[in-house]
User: Fold this.
Amino acid sequence: MFVKVYNQKGEETGKTALPKELFEVSFNSDLVHQVVVSQMGNRRQVSAHTKGRGDVRGGGRKPWRQKGTGRARAGSRRSPIWRGGGITFGPTNERNFKKIIPQKMRRKALFMVLSQKAKDSEIIILDKLKLEKAKTKEAANIVRLIRANKSINQIRNSKAKSSKTKKQESFLIALPKMDENIIRAARNLPKATTILAKDLNCLDILSYKYLMLPKEAIKIIKDTFIK
Assistant:
């Protein structure tokens, strides 16, 4: 598969071939869904926590004697039916949402998502990506020029029509290596974020409309995930 290559000014500079083992894999929605759900579960932070009757304060002695008072039997002030007592069946921070997915399945799903992005013309290849200074203004200018490109504009308008979703204009920038200037410059962009090419995954790719790849990153992806 051949795709257009752009420079940082949004100008077309040529074409490049994408590896078919990465960008020409048939899509299986069930596998992709399974992998994405597992990744969402693995990232989930379990913060909701309630106290049971064994966790709340008080209730060390029996409120009143068992018989002879005319009142209902009670063994502890920490009973869930009492005010200030424990919570029954409440959420706890001991829950575990993690799911283990085999590496082959994760990689296969990644190739499917990359292939679908390429098929939908949602992958933007740059000849290089470099900033002299870590300035958000420069990173924003690159994204603006890419968005202003006519062919990309036509793709965006034909795909999204008049919908105004957060995902519509968003960019995921995959870097071939650590570049503090680019990472710091893109940190404040509202609809763009950076990731290392070796750390690409289904969830992050699907969370953004476009995947921006410098040509060097394609080789990194191939060397990392195809063994």
About this structure: The helical segments are 20-23, 29-43, 103-119, 136-148, 150-160, 180-186, 202-206, 215-225. The chain has two domains: 2-44+99-225, 47-96. The CA atoms of residues 49 and 208 lie 32 Å apart.
